[in-house]
Write a structure and sequence with these properties.
The structure holds 2 protein chains of 2 kinds. Chain A is α/β, with parallel strands linked by helices. Chain A folds into 2 domains: 2-182, Rossmann fold (3-Layer(aba) Sandwich); 189-299, Nitrogenase molybdenum iron protein domain (Rossmann fold, 3-Layer(aba) Sandwich). Chain A contains 10 helices and 8 strands. Chain A has helices at residues 2-19, 31-41, 64-71, 88-95, 145-159, 164-188, 205-211, 229-241, 256-265, 285-299; strands at 24-28, 45-49, 75-78, 107-109, 196-199, 214-218, 246-250, 268-272. In chain A, strands 2-1-3-4 form a 4-stranded parallel beta sheet, with helices on one face. Chain A has a 4-stranded parallel beta sheet with strand order 6-5-7-8, with helices on both faces. In chain A, strand 7 (246-250), helix 9 (256-265) and strand 8 (268-272) form a beta-alpha-beta unit. In chain A, helix 2 crosses helix 5 (145-159) and helix 8 (229-241) crosses helix 9 (256-265). Classes of the chains: A alpha/beta, B mainly beta. At the A-B interface, helix 1, helix 3, helix 4 and helix 5 of A face strand 7, strand 9 and strand 10 of B.
């Protein structure tokens, strides 16, 4: 009898886990979408995030734990624009979950509702890790978010019609707070206008566009290709001709290349949180931008 | 390959459809792989104490050679099915490695696959040669299946609705490939059935693992192979009966904070036991005088054999990986019944040590150097050097864990 107790408890535990969710089960690909769902759904959704802020969302593996989570999801909220192409299609296929298949209401890709920049005219792998749909890191222009929030709310209302009014009210509240925050950020960031910067990877293009900064040079020779010593020497030469004030990198990227450039060219290396949790200060969508602007102003 | 990205002006809440992978055309990908092999000149390569497992073998020739060129097509058929085909092309021959459909909308954790597919048993079986961590297949799979087990049939999988990954699968197939045989597949019903169960999870952000057990039953009929008889000449043998294989597999991956870009480690091991029993007929195959030892006797046959491989692959800096693989087999006990005396069972433990270093300039290209000491044949120590390239062009689907 005793020998049976442990396996029985194990199975019971597994089943309990399976039935103990009453709210909408949402799997967000990145922390920012988890945060947006929490803003828009509040306690009506139970949110799980597939990646941590220290991971590169381009390079995630379809791990067994992620497949298990996709199996139980009612809604998948991801960036799209091929950012998750290396792992999301596998999660969908392996999950045996019809709700989250492409084209179903339980599949939501934010990039479908944003205007993307840097769309390549031609696609050739010799150009590095280019996204056919455009640069997927649009979150860093906060003006793109309201359209995404509206579409996501419509989706939540479709899946969970009973709480439609709840979602509508939260959307109105979020848009009002977000609009006010954008005004505040733009005022604070006014001195950054025209600031020349270097970037590690092309993931700050939207931020630079929004705040009116200027990109002098990329540390990566091609998107997604690690900078070589020879290329960094070129970068330093370039920075001697056209000086920049900062080298921007995301928190998940190796600090070595930007620190190397900092030492050689005297351009300050600034680490920015790439998503919520990417720094101690970036606790939600609002404090993420507060912190980014604070760090930029300090780095200038 | 040039594609034109649809430049669509974005607006408000209407979805903006980007030009995905070739719009409505299937994803087409081509894998180029070739090698240089420096090894001993051995006419009949085999693994001592084990029956040769079919002819489905990748590579093996000395000097420069082209491995199979793989051509892959995949796309969603509609919202119910996904289709996939993989063709292995080599001079004058196209092998259909895989050609299957898979359900997308059965829901409740169920997925059904039908057609020709790589069986879900074990860990490494579903990996195509271009996804291997070494230039050649491990010895365990080599003696079990030749390269890997291919099924013509159906597979049903169910993923439990649990926080821990828990998956069960069953397969019924024609079973014409080793350890089955062409005649064994010719019947109403299945010449091979298989089942597997897997469990997996994460330990914190940095570790993830998967463990599984699998079972395969094949019913070969008149399965032919060539072996050395007691006179040390080639004999033709013919086996009909049951072939049962158990496999236990384990894989564990580590990356600091789950960010595999800088450094990561992958440990992988599989252990198998195979039990074959039935009737074995042994014929002289020399056509010479004096003839070989076999005289066409048909007799009871029973063999219990096992083996394992364990490997570790470590990416110590971006783009560079090193790996070590240990192969070990036990030719176990073989009872030839009345054929005993004509066929001598070689009691032997084939081993092989392999080390590799690979460099991947990008996700789509890889160059590899592999050194191996192969003692899979008794009294032969074959020190091998392999230089290999693997390149992928076109949109290539993500690899499984």
């Amino acid at each position: 009898m005793k020998r049976l107790t442990l396996p029985v408890m194990f199975v019971a535990g597994l089943l309990w886990n399976a039935v103990s969710h009453a709210a909408l089960n949402v799997l967000a690909c990145e922390p920012e979408w988890g945060a947006l769902v929490m803003e828009l759904a509040g306690d009506k959704a139970s949110v799980s995030v597939a990646t941590t802020p220290r991971q590169d969302p381009h390079r995630i593996e379809a791990r067994p734990s992620l497949i298990a989570r996709a199996r139980r999801a009612d809604l998948l909220v991801c960036t799209g624009a091929e950012l998750e192409i290396g792992w999301l299609p596998l999660l969908q296929r392996e999950s045996g979950n019809a709700k989250i298949q492409t084209g179903r209401p339980g599949w939501f890709e934010a990039a479908d509702y944003a205007e993307l920049i840097e769309k390549p005219d031609t696609l050739d792998r010799a150009m590095g890790d280019v996204h056919a749909a455009g640069n997927p890191h649009f979150l860093f222009d906060p003006r793109t978010l309201p359209a995404v929030a509206e579409a996501l709310t419509a989706r939540l209302q479709k899946i969970d019609a009973a709480n439609s009014a709840h979602y509508a009210a939260r959307l109105a509240d979020f848009k009002q707070r977000w609009g006010a925050a954008i005004t505040r950020w733009e005022q604070r960031a006014a001195p950054l206008k025209g600031t020349p910067v270097a970037v590690h990877h092309k993931n700050w293009s939207y931020l630079i566009l929004w705040l009116g900064m200027e990109t002098v040079v990329d540390l990566e020779p091609k998107p997604g290709v690690d900078p070589s010593a020879a290329h960094l020497a070129e970068v330093v030469k370039r920075l001697e001709q056209t000086p920049a004030r900062m080298v921007l990198r995301a928190n998940y990227q190796s600090p070595r290349p930007s620190q190397w450039v900092e030492q050689r060219a005297g351009v300050k290396a600034v680490e920015l949180p790439f998503t919520i949790g990417g720094s101690d200060q970036a606790k939600n969508l609002f404090s993420l931008f507060d912190d980014i602007i604070t760090r930029l102003l300090e780095g200038r | 390959m040039k594609r034109i990205a649809l430049a669509v002006a974005a607006c408000c809440t209407a979805p903006v459809w980007a030009a995905g992978s070739n719009s409505f055309n299937p994803d087409i990908s081509l894998i180029l792989q070739g090698r240089y092999l420096n090894a001993k000149d051995i006419e009949e390569r085999h693994v001592t104490g084990f029956l040769p497992a079919g002819e489905h073998d990748h590579g093996g020739s000395r000097g420069f050679s082209l491995d199979h060129t793989e051509l892959t097509f995949s796309a969603n058929v509609d919202h119910y099915f996904r289709g996939y085909a993989n063709f292995a092309i080599i001079d004058e021959k196209v092998e259909v490695e895989e050609a299957w459909f898979q359900t997308l909308s059965l829901d409740h954790g169920f997925t059904v696959k039908g057609g020709r597919f790589l069986s879900g048993i074990g860990y490494g079986n579903e990996h195509h040669p271009h996804a291997w961590d070494f230039a050649d297949q491990n010895l365990a799979y080599k003696v079990l299946f030749g390269t890997h087990l291919i099924h013509d049939g159906v597979q049903a999988r169910w993923l439990a609705p649990t926080a821990t990954f828990l998956e069960f699968g069953v397969e019924a197939a024609r079973g014409q490939f080793f350890p089955g045989s062409t005649a064994g597949g010719d019947k109403n019903g299945a010449g091979a059935v298989a089942a597997f169960a897997r469990i997996g999870d994460d330990w914190g952000d940095s570790h993830s693992w998967r463990a599984g057990v699998s079972y395969l039953h094949a019913s070969p009929k008149g399965r032919e192979s060539h072996v050395e008889d007691a006179n040390d000449v080639e004999a033709h043998i013919d086996f009909s009966g049951d072939s049962r294989t158990w496999i236990a597999d384990f894989v564990w991956k580590w990356a600091p904070d789950g960010n595999s870009r800088e450094r990561n480690l992958k440990l992988q091991a599989e252990y198998f036991q195979r039990h074959e029993s039935g009737e074995l007929e042994c014929e002289d195959n020399t056509g010479e005088t004096p003839p070989g030892a076999c005289d066409g006797t048909s007799s009871d046959y029973s063999a219990k054999q096992s083996g394992l491989y364990a490997q570790a692959v470590y990416q110590f800096m971006p783009r560079w990986r090193v790996g070590y693989r240990h192969d070990w087999l036990d030719s176990g006990t073989v009872d030839y019944g009345a054929n005993d005396g004509m066929l001598a069972h070689a009691k032997y433990s084939p081993t092989r040590h392999s080390v590799m270093l690979d460099y991947s300039p990008s996700e789509f290209s890889r160059l590899r150097l592999q050194l191996a000491q192969d003692k899979s044949m008794r009294d032969v120590t074959d020190n091998q050097i392999i230089v290999q390239y693997v390149m992928s062009i076109g949109p290539h689907g993500a690899h499984k864990f």
